[in-house]
UniProtKB/TrEMBL annotation:
Sample GO molecular function, one term: glutathione transferase activity
Keywords of this entry: Transferase
UniProt name for this protein: Glutathione S-transferase
InterPro entries listed in its UniProt record: Glutathione-S-Trfase_C_sf, Glutathione_S-Trfase_N, Thioredoxin-like_sf
Pfam families the record matches: GST_N_2 (PF13409)
Sequence ranges assigned to domain GST N-terminal in this UniProt record: 3-84
Keyword Signal found: no
GO biological process assignments: glutathione metabolic process; L-phenylalanine catabolic process
Signal keyword on record: no
Length: 288
């Protein structure tokens, strides 16, 4: 048996992003399922996993239901002590736990006024006093982490704290919010992270657009790494005969930077078109 991980829409569900990163970044396998945010009945869709009412929800191998991201993180850290979810150094670990708990319970203005939308980026978004206060607090927390550890992440290697701050990085980037140089560098590190890029690319091609997450601000291009030029095509001779992800025969084609590659289904193709460099399995084929 393995874990079951139930998530919401990748583009909008900041809590689901946290939950997925806790498994993906630390190499913990899970059978992933999704609820549909478009119907707004998440609790009903989770009825078979009672008492859970929100995503992410984890079902442990023996059947325990865990539906709070901090509880999920601590349970995984207990069950997988060698995975490195928390820093090994006691001082760093204690500080990382404190920062994570504050992220889990605070920053209400930033959450409510700047909902995560990985498919959109804005310029000149209004910044309320509450959002400004939240940004300054983030700068303080991140600067304190830097005083204790010089990276590459907040507390050395990637930890639970970074997974929890990933949606914040998406908000700062997506709304063009001004932060100091170190905070901006930390945000950019998230945008360039392979797992973050994969999550975003899959959301761009797999999620239904939800208009209630859209703001009426002026839009701009996403501030993360610029993806390789790509598009889906109907005909052509691919360089590969097996899908880079499944190993199955190719049935769908894409042109990436003028070269043709094949995939076993539309989702494999489209996520690669969205951000080819986010997927090492494809890039191995591309570079060969």
């Amino acid at each position: 048996m393995t874990y079951t991980l139930i998530l919401g829409d990748r583009t909008y569900s900041s809590w689901s992003l946290r939950g997925w990163l806790l498994f993906e970044k630390f190499g913990i396998p899970a059978d992933t399922k999704f609820v549909d945010f478009s119907s707004r009945d998440v609790a009903d869709q989770l009825s078979k996993y009672a008492p859970a009412r929100t995503v992410p929800t984890v079902v442990t191998p023996e059947g325990a239901i865990v539906s709070d991201t901090l509880a999920i993180a601590e349970e995984l850290a207990t069950r997988h002590p060698k995975a490195g979810l928390w820093p090994g150094d006691p001082k760093l670990r204690a500080t990382a736990r404190a920062a994570t708990a504050e992220m889990h319970s605070s920053f209400g203005a930033l959450r409510s006024e700047c909902p995560m939308h990985l498919g959109q980026a804005y310029v000149n978004a209004p910044v309320s006093e509450g959002v400004s206060d939240d940004l300054r607090r983030l700068e303080t927390i991140w600067a304190h982490a830097r005083e204790l550890s010089y990276g590459p992440w907040l507390f050395g290697d990637y930890s639970v704290a970074d997974a929890f701050f990933a949606p914040v990085a998406a908000r700062i980037a997506g709304y063009g919010l001004e932060v100091n140089e170190f905070a901006a560098d930390y945000v950019a590190r998230h945008l360039a992270d392979t797992a973050f890029r994969q999550w975003r690319a899959m959301g761009l091609v797999g999620d239904t657009a939800l208009p209630w997450y859209v703001k009426s601000y002026r839009t701009t291009t996403w501030p993360g790494p610029k993806p390789l030029r790509g598009k889906a095509i109907e005909t052509g001779e691919p360089e590969n005969t097996a899908c880079p992800y499944s190993g199955q025969p190719v049935t769908h084609l894409a042109e990436i930077e003028g070269r043709i590659f094949g995939f076993c289904n539309a989702f494999c193709r489209d996520k690669t078109v969205a951000d080819a460099e986010a997927f090492p399995a494809f890039m191995d084929v591309y570079r060969s």
